[in-house]
Amino acid sequence: MAQNIKDYIALNKDRFVEELLDLLRIPSVSADPEFKDDVFNAAQYVKDRLVEAGADKVEICPTDGYPIVYGEKMINPALPTVLVYGHYDVQPADPYDLWSSPPFEPVIKDGKIYARGASDDKGQMYMHIKAFEYMMRNNVLSCNVKFMIEGEEEVGSANLGTFVKNNRQKLKCDVVLISDTSMIANDVPSITVGLRGLAYLEVEITGPNRDLHSGTYGGAVPNPINALCEMIARLIDDKTRKITIPGFYDDVLTISDEEKQAIADIPFSLDKYRQELDINAIRGEQGYSTIELTSVRPTLDVNGIKGGYQGEGAKTVIASKASAKISMRLVPNQKSEKIAELFTEYFKTLAPDGVTVKVTNMHGGDPVVVPIDSIEYRAAAAAYLETFGKKPLPNRAGGSIPIVKLFEDELGVKSVMMGFGLDTDKIHSPNEHFGIFNFLKGIETIPYFFHHYAEMKK
Ligand code: BES
Ligand code: MN
Ligand code: MN
Q1: pLDDT tens digits along 257-303
Q2: Pocket-forming residues, ligand 1, beta carbon under 6 Å
Q3: Residues 234 and 359 sit within 8 Å (Cβ to Cβ)
Q4: Where in the chain is the domain with CATH 3.30.70.360?
Q5: E runs forming strands in 31-95
Q6: For residue 352, what pLDDT band results from cuts at 50, 70 and 90?
Q7: Cα angle for residues 267, 374, 181 (degrees, 5° grid)
Q8: Which of 38, 111, 164, 175 stands 20 to 30 A from 256 (CA)?
Q9: Do the Cβ atoms of 191 and 418 come closer than 8 Å?
Q10: How far, in Å, is the centroid of ligand 3 from the Cα of 92?
Q11: Residue 259 phi/psi, 5° resolution?
Q12: Nearest-angstrom CA–CA distance, 4 and 16
């Protein structure tokens, strides 16, 4: 073999990090139109680095929203093709004042890169471009490879579905490779084998036709904020902490004893978990462990709520409107669309007299689980064994990547999710970071996946 990956990393790691920092300096926040130019600039940056690394046919494919960066290296039609998926857009960085250093001015502290997108997903996506660079420059690429890096993951990938449907031939592959999840710990490597689905809705309650004096009218007029709170409270049973929407659990698959045991075997300290979050107890559906609650059970959470006076000081007012953004995380074999309908129907029945309810379905996606006896899983496991010196554990994530189900349905292929982040990377939160250990370990492990996958497919 040519220069080995460890040596290549040792020689090039400072440049790898510098290039990632340059990408992190681009505030590619897809949710906020103020950053529109930056999102396009991030796409251009990814394109340029793919070209440099040796990809062919690199293009910025326009969509009705932000573009998809595509590139490929087809070395031999007889070899298997790996489609690498990732995203160059990031979550909004607010609240800015809770960051120890500005979110788009990356700094390295205690071996970690601090910036919005460091772990989700710029740092993890970039590992693939550098692993590809290594395989190209050392002539060890063992599979055909296609890159599809999108800019709308954090806002629901609305245009990626159309792109995939319209480009089935171009995207034809044997497996999708994704690094956009986490592993259990740096010394407990794991491969993500499941993602929860999502149904995300906004509800709006309207009471009187204008904001009112809360003394003059208070006591008689239906207050939409009070109503909203009462309605939300009724969505979860007080005692069992089960979601009360009729039919919500109908399609939920209960996990096997085997999988329950595998979850119980994951090293976990509830004390540490509580300490890290400054909470003195966890609160979830009765009868399940913490890891079960955050991976194999469905949830309902309010993500945002608004209404009434939000300014300094006090204002005596009954608002005309109140609204909330509500998400439900779904597990196999729940269907996002069905759950959104069940929610809408039930939520409307909870409205007290005198208010009207409007429910808007915002976005969603179906859950997935992937098999652990597949060639791609075994190839990934063999890769981790080489670079971590340990067999990885299969692990189901609580988060969602809605397009993974779409790849199964539209391209007929499974995904292998080699996440190198940690749950404590603070993705979506202030002070997001990504360990340099994790970044380099990802770059080191990916070429082994390509190697073993090509071997096992022979
Ligand atoms: N990378 C995350 C998903 C994730 C994080 C999976 C951690 C597993 C572990 C992704 O960027 C994300 O944030 N997805 C959104 C869904 C999307 C529709 C906005 C999510 O899970 O909230
Ligand atoms: Mn992500
Ligand atoms: Mn995310």
Answers
A1: 999 999 999 999 999 999 999 999 999 999 999 999 999 999 999 99
A2: 120-121, 153-154, 156, 180-182, 195, 198, 363, 365, 397, 399-402
A3: no
A4: 197-252+298-362
A5: 56-61, 68-73, 81-87
A6: very high
A7: 45
A8: 175
A9: yes
A10: 10
A11: -70, -35
A12: 16
Instruction: Scan for tokens 């510098």, then name that residue.
Output: 18
Residue closest via CA to ligand 1's atom 20 equals 400
CB proximity list for 228: less than 8 A, separation 6 or greater: 203, 205, 305, 307, 322, 323, 324
State the distance from the centre of ligand 2 to the C-alpha of 428, rounded, in angstroms. Answer: 9
CATH number for the segment(s) 197-252+298-362: 3.30.70.360
Closest ligand 1 atom to 155 CA = 19
The CA 127 to ligand 2 mean position distance, Å, reads: 14
Tokens of 340: 């959104």
> 255: Cβ–Cβ under 8 A, 6 or more apart, which residues?
263, 292, 296
pLDDT band at 3 (very low <50, low <70, confident <90, very high): confident
The region, left, alpha or beta by phi > 0 then psi within -120 to 50, assigned to residue 247 is: left
What does CATH list as the number for 2-195+367-456?
3.40.630.10
Query: What's 153's DSSP letter?
Result: G
H helix runs in 54-179, sequence order: 123-137, 160-166
Atom of ligand 1 nearest to the CA of 157: 18
CA distances from 116 to 88, 103, 253, 407, 438 (A): 11, 5, 35, 27, 16
The SS3 of residue 357 is strand
419 C-alpha to center of ligand 1: Å?
A: 12
Question: Among candidates 362, 350, 361, which has minimal Cα distance to 228?
Answer: 350
113-162 pLDDT, tens digit each: 999 999 999 999 999 999 999 999 999 999 999 999 999 999 989 999 99
Is this structure's pTM higher than 0.90?
yes
